[in-house]
Amino acid sequence: MAWMALEDAKNQVDQAFTRKDPRGLSFENAFGGATSFLRRRYSKDLAGVDVAVTGIPFDQAVTHRPGTRFGPRAIREASTLQAFDAPYGWGYDPLSVLTVVDYGDMAFDYANTREVPARIEAHLGTILDAGAAPITLGGDHSITLPILRAVAARRGPVALIQFDAHSDTWVDDDPDRIDHGTFLYKAIREGAVDPAASVSIGIRTDNPDTLGVTILDAPSVHRDGVDATLARIQQVIGERPVYVTFDIDALDPAFAPGTGTPVWGGLASWQAAALLRGLAGVDLIGGDVVEVSPPYDTTGATAIAGAHVAMELIALYGWTRR
Q1: CA–CA separation, 98 and 10 (whole Å)
Q2: Which one, 19, 58, 177, 276, has the greatest CB density within 10 A?
Q3: 297 vs 38, 171, 304, CA distance in Å?
Q4: Which residues of the chain have pLDDT under 70?
Q5: d(CA 87, CA 101)
Q6: pLDDT given for residue 288 in this prediction
């Protein structure tokens, strides 16, 4: 396979535009070419597409360090290291089973912040109405609220698996506020998320009211282990279709320093990988990875983690369709 990769790399470049077969791995020099996610073809045509990867480069009022608007670009670049091989340990190649395209980024007027949530909801609605599963690269965590609105409008209240350092259920009854820390409060209050079938993993900040969401905080994951955590997740979500949102600050800053709100004591990357892999078999509706802020991580480790999360979400979606 290495020989074939080298042979292909002699002739292949810019497969984000030039590849003819939408399925299969890509052998292109990682340091060159157009950086679509996993070298998938850029396309606005969703006919026959299983998974549409899209970016929402929006951050508006994060707690401390802005810059997550650069997350989609950094995640795409990091993903070029993953395009040569099937994800290790899954036992199948989701890029050969699924038709995956990079749907590009959502357009919006950066000076008209109030219109952004409605644009996100419409953007995701287009993907969902085409029958594709959306995998979204953010952006701050406020983007997940309109995504959930779009999903719930078509599927009813969803079961949610949230990886995060913060529960994001702080009280916010102002419909005009766009806040990365209150997306779940509003989603539950609006009926887009069923809290009884939802779980938040990796939490390590206090919140007086989590609105009925099951909290599996970081200390419990460290103490009880991956298998017990997965068993509890499965008990909560049951057989419900599920949406997964992964705030990169679920990881400890040692593994993902490039985020707006780092909190120590978080998940190690191996724990997150094992938990995502252990969800194999869930009925995944879609997912996102948010809060990657590359200006605060010159190593690129945070973007690499974000790219792996997005790849795992694609593999999860393909598991029951392989």
Answers
A1: 26
A2: 58
A3: 21, 31, 11
A4: 1-7
A5: 17
A6: 98
